[in-house]
Design brief:
- The protein is mostly beta strands.
- It has 2 helices and 20 strands.
- Strands 8, 12, 13, 14, 15, 16, 17, 18, 19 and 20 form a 10-stranded mixed sheet that branches.
- Strand 10 and strand 11 form a beta hairpin.
- The protein binds zinc ion (ZN).
- The site of zinc ion (ZN) has 8 residues, from loops.
- Zinc ion binds next to loops.
Amino acid sequence: MLRAFQLVDSSSIQLQRWKPLTSLVSSISITNRSFSSSTSCCCSSSRGSILFSQISSSRGNSLFRSFRISSISSQSSVDDVSSSKSFSSTTLQPTAELPKVSFCQWCGAAAKQAIPDGDDKIRSICTACDKVAYQNPKMVVGCLVEHDNMILLCKRKIQPGYGLWCLPSGYMEMGESAADGAARETLEEACAEVKILSPFAHLDIPYIGNSYIFFRAKMTSSEISPGPESLDCRFFPPSDIPFDSLAFSSMFVALKLYVEDLKAGQTTKFHYCTINKRPGSSASDIHAYTLVDHFRSQ
Ligand SMILES: [Zn+2]
């Protein structure tokens, strides 16, 4: 997904619309894969093919649609876009305090806090083998599963957010694609077999170092049941989504975007947003954020 973006200049980002592979002519890169040969996931029977888009540097390519750039707050409606702003790929947001790595994960020796040669950030460096323990954001992947004009949500059986509702989602595992992971999490949390249809949103939360990718998906069977990490799972009509009982800001934003798109009759949009959590706020304060750098396909 990260390859799906190209910084064209200081004020715009362009994203190509999703097209069948047969119509693609790539000028930079094409990523595509079929899920049918996946070996790491337990839901291979649900696998269909996902079609990834190309990236092109051609501004005149009619397949491109510029994103609208907006900045909104959590108090505003998602469509309440009041200002355009330049996109900066170099802005660093405040982050929650990271756990200190005191011992080397490779040899077990003590680690020191220092700036490695050629770097500009303090890292944990092993005092014996000199290896650096880099701490980088994690990818969370999930599905927006539509079925009979309803959306699948799971009630969490684990902390954080115990008893609150989420889109089926979780951390991406080594060896799997984002789409594979989203389908796997949906199977694990709701025992739902799905086919990935298209990407829906990429949401970054720099404060906690999480990056979310949600995919639209459809059921390949009609059965759902709570997995080991879920108390319940249900399909909700858009009008009944429990916005007051969602677990995280990412879920609130994703579902709000989804409902706004539905109201606008636009069900194929793709969103990219940065969710800036209020420094010091807890994960349970899902409204303590500002939504910035909101790009959406037209
Ligand atoms: Zn070491």
